[in-house]
Amino acid sequence: MNKQLELSLFAASTESEVDKEKPHSVCPKCGCKHVKTTATSTTYCKPCRLSHNRVVRAIQKDNPRPDREDYCCNICGKQERDLSTHFGKHGLKKSVWRLDHDHSTGKFRGYLCDNCNVAVGKLDDDPETILKALWYVKTNNGNAILSDEDLVEWCYNILSSSN
């Protein structure tokens, strides 16, 4: 490897290290700027993270994780045996089920598999964004020209077939 490439790779790696003196993350809930202590830290500030954890524990108290073998994810329909095993700290096996709730109201919605819960969360729990993602996939990455009526019919067919 030539010297110039080595130097540029070194510069890129040192730039990505966490600067613990300057805020570099914005809490998605309250909007405050804060310092993430590690690369794996949550993007939420400490007060919001603690508040969220209290809400989740209260919901879990009233809605325990599913323990039936035939329980299915409410989105993809997979059972635990169809999902990848997750391991937490110290190599302990974690449940594949994630508590899903409305972040603005704190209302419990159910338990989803990790993949579906992350997907919904990454789309900000926004039905319109989720619908646009579905439409993007359905229309060949947005290249197909379909009318709004086609969209309504397509959504109706999906929703009526899932019951």
* Class computed from helices, strands and strand pairing: alpha+beta
Low-confidence stretches: 4-16
Report strand %. 5-15%
How would you describe the shape? globular
Work out the radius of gyration: 21 Å
Write the element-wise H/E pattern from the N-terminal end onward. Answer: HEEHEEEEHHH
Number of strands: 6
Instruction: Give the N-terminus to C-terminus distance in angstroms.
Output: 59 Å
Largest sheet at a glance?
A: 2 strands, antiparallel
Mean pLDDT: 78
What's the number of helices?
A: 5
Provide the spatial order of strands within the biggest beta sheet.
1-2
Number of domains: 3
Helix content: 25-40%
Summed up, what is this model?
With 163 residues, the protein is an alpha+beta fold. It has five helices and six strands, in the order H-E-E-H-E-E-E-E-H-H-H.
